[in-house]
Structure formats: C-alpha cells, structure tokens
Amino acid sequence: MKRVMLFAFLALWALPAAAMADEATSESQNTEATDTVTVEESVLSESDDYGEYTVDDLLSIIQEQAAYIEDLTARVSVLEGNVEEVSEKAEKASDIPSWLPKVKISGDMRYRYEHIAQQGKKSRQRDRIRMRLGLDGQVNDQLKLKARLASGSADPVSTNQTLDGAFSSKNIWFDRAYFDWQASENVKVYGGKMSNPFFKPGGSQLLWDGDLNPEGLAFSFQGSGESQPFLNVAHFWADERSGGSDARVFGVQGGVEFGGKNTTATVGLGYYNYTSLKGQPPLVDVTDSFGNTVITDTNTGDIFYANGFKELEAFAQVDWKAGGTPVSLYGDWVTNTDAGADDTGWLVGVDFGSTKNPGDWKFGYNYRRVEADAVLGAWCDSDFAGGGTDGKGHVFGLGVGIAKNTSAGLTYFLNDAGLTGGKSYKRLQLDFKFKF
Fold first, then answer.
1. 227 domain residue, yes or no
2. Which of 33, 37, 99, 179 is spaced 20 to 30 Å from 380 by Cα?
3. pLDDT of the chain along its 436 residues, tens only?
4. Cβ proximity of 307 and 292 under 8 Å
C-alpha cells in the first residue's frame, strides 16, 4: 500500500516538473522568460501550491486512488475464483449421463394403525405399512415409460403390508408398468399395467378401489375451451383362460367439465362390459365372491358367479372455493343391467379443505349403499363394510398437513355389512403419510 502511494505521488510530482523543464529549455535564450520561471519556482516553493491543488489535496487523491486500485485487485481475485469454480462445475456436469435428466423418481410411505370391530367377530388391531416407489422415463417428446414398485401382496386392491411374521422380510411387487403416449395435443394412449384411466368423482370407490391398477390398453381424449368434453375408452384383461373364453372388460366413459374460474362442474356417463364371468369361479379368490351372488356346486363346494356384469354409471361433481377453501360435492350411481335383482349402488359425498400445506385441514364425508350385484365385488372398495358389495353406511375423514409433503389422517367407517340382516361393521384408521 505504501509503495503504491509513493509511486503515485512521485508520478504526480514529476509531471509538472517535466513540463516546467521543457518550457525552460525551449525559452532558455529569453532572459525574461527565465526570470519568470525563477519567480514561479520561488512562488511554488513558498506556497506549495500546484495550480488549484495543495500537496495535501494531492496526497488525499493518491490515497483514494490507491485504495480503489487495491479494491479492484481484490474483486479481480474473487472473479478469477468464481470462474474457476464454474469451470469445475461444468466439467462435473459433463460427466452426468445424458439419460439422467429424463428420469423422474417419486415415492410415498404410509404408516397406519387400524382397529376393526365387526358384530359376531373378535375385534382386531394391527399396524400396517405401504411403500411405493415410482419411476418415469422420458423416451421422447411424446412418449413416457412409467413403472412403480409397491409393498403388499398379489391382492389387486391393496398395497398394505401388515407388521407381523416375526420380523420377516416384506414383498415388493410391480404395481404399475406401462407406456404413456401423447399422440396429439388432446389424445393420450396407455398400454400395460396402468393407473385407472376412468374419472372417479370425488375419488369415489363405488366401482373401483383406489389401489386398483388395471391391465390392457386405454385411450383418453381431453377437450379444451370453457366446456371441456372428455372421453375414456379401455380394453382390460381380467383372466386369460387357455381352456375357455377369456374374461375381459370393455369400458367407455364420456362427460364434460364446464364452469368459470372459481366454480367447475363435471358430469358424465360410463358403461363397462365384463365378458365371460357368469358361471365362472370368482376372480382374485375362487373361494370368496366379495359379496356377489354365487351358485354353489353341491358336490365339490366350489362357487361360481350367478350373474354377469354390464355396469351403467352416471356421475357428477361440483368444485368451488368458499373463502379460499376448496370444496367438492360429488355423487356416483351405478346399475348392473346383467343382473335381475340387487343390481344398484350409489354414493354421495363432500370434501372440504386440503392438506397440501402445513397447518391445513381437510374434512370428508360420504354415504353409500351397494347391493350385492351392483358391481364386481373383487375390485370395489376393500375397506368399506369389510370389502366388496352388499353393504351400506357412512365414512368420515379428517386430515391435517404437518409439514411439507407430510400429513396425518383419521378415517372412520360406520357401516352395515349386509343389506338384509346386516351386521355392524366399524373400522378406524390412523394414517401418517410421507411423500417425495
């Protein structure tokens, strides 16, 4: 710092002296001019004044410039360090595989305490876990491949794993594995074991359990504009039989969503035709029809579906905000046109609030009545009235956001298992949910 100041001072001192020397040389033969220079030098030596600046002023300027130079030097050093750091990061980024940015990993975990009290049976308590890990890969701008692993068993409507078995290892299954093709701006095509492509008002499980992931091909159209029509068409494989007719599901669902900024309504119809089920053993578990009417072979004790299933559905949902809080009112109705009796089911419900942010609350309620052959029992709600059809009752839900991506919930089922001479069925679930 001192050397910089000294150098700057000498430079400023030398410039006026050099100028005066040149002037003295060019006019050396002019005595009058020489006397003038002598007088000027005398004045300078006496007043220490360089024109309008004193020596103290010049020293102050020199100090300011020296400090400015030192500051610039420090900034240059910082910039050189930043450039080096960016260069190192760029080199590391170049080592990342090109496919990695095209892959998205997500997952969730649920810990559940459950208490079940059913008339005529001993009450039951248990803790259960559900773990799911999803992987989405971007093949190109239009095509994605999606897969998900989940805990549980071969049961298509549950990914729960009960904590028992003396700390035994738990199973992991392919819960989903399918392609998602954006064929055009409004059209999607799916193939494989996929998330359910059909719209479910309020998340209704009247026809389909929330954990059910059907298998086959599906087509989806979503319109645009103020009134948005939609169409979902699917062909699912239920049971491929080498020695007989295959069990399949052909489904079509259409509707329209309309409304303004704060209120929307969705209405529609659906039709689902199950082939080759009548007279066949029940799906999923040949010893349990999950509420559907069966015929029993008196010789073997085997059971078979007494009816086929051709389900006609009508649904509606209205969403709005009350003081900034989301509210949803919904209804779902279905009848099985291939059954002569006990063929109808319906559900109405309301949701208020959400658990998206910490401190948020959500309340939900629905009431339903499901006759024995209204829907296929193996694929509808696995918790309501013990699972399957032939039941009625209430479902209450309460949830709260605890932290980011973390929530807790309480669900209480107050049902009758059996519409005729039904038995009381109560089920309490306390959930802690985490996702990433």
1. yes
2. 179
3. 444 444 444 444 444 444 444 444 444 444 443 443 343 444 334 444 445 678 787 788 888 888 888 888 888 878 877 777 777 776 666 677 888 889 999 999 999 999 999 999 999 999 999 999 999 999 999 999 999 999 999 999 999 999 999 999 999 999 999 999 999 999 999 999 999 999 999 999 999 999 999 999 999 999 988 899 999 999 999 999 988 899 999 999 999 999 988 899 999 999 999 999 999 999 999 999 999 999 999 999 999 999 999 999 999 999 999 989 999 999 999 999 999 899 999 999 999 999 999 999 999 999 999 999 999 999 999 999 999 999 999 999 999 999 999 999 999 999 999 999 889 999 999 999 999 9
4. yes
- The amino acid occupying position 370 is V
**Domain for residue 99, yes or no?**
no
Domain that holds residue 13: 2-93
> Domain boundary at 32, 67, 93, which?
93
CA–CA dist 153, 170 (Å, integer): 9
For residue 98, is it within any domain? Answer: no
Domain stops at, among 38, 61, 93: 93
Task: Encode burial over 167-205: b for 16+ CB neighbours within 10 A, e otherwise.
Answer: eeeeeeeebbbbebbeeeeeebebebbbebbbbbbbebb
Cβ-in-10-Å burial (0-12, 13-18, 19+) of 211 comes to buried
Same domain, 87 and 128: no
**φ/ψ (deg, to 5) at 2:** -65, -40
Q: Is position 213 within any domain?
A: yes
Q: What's the domain count of the chain?
A: 2
Contact 239, 378 (CB under 8 A): no
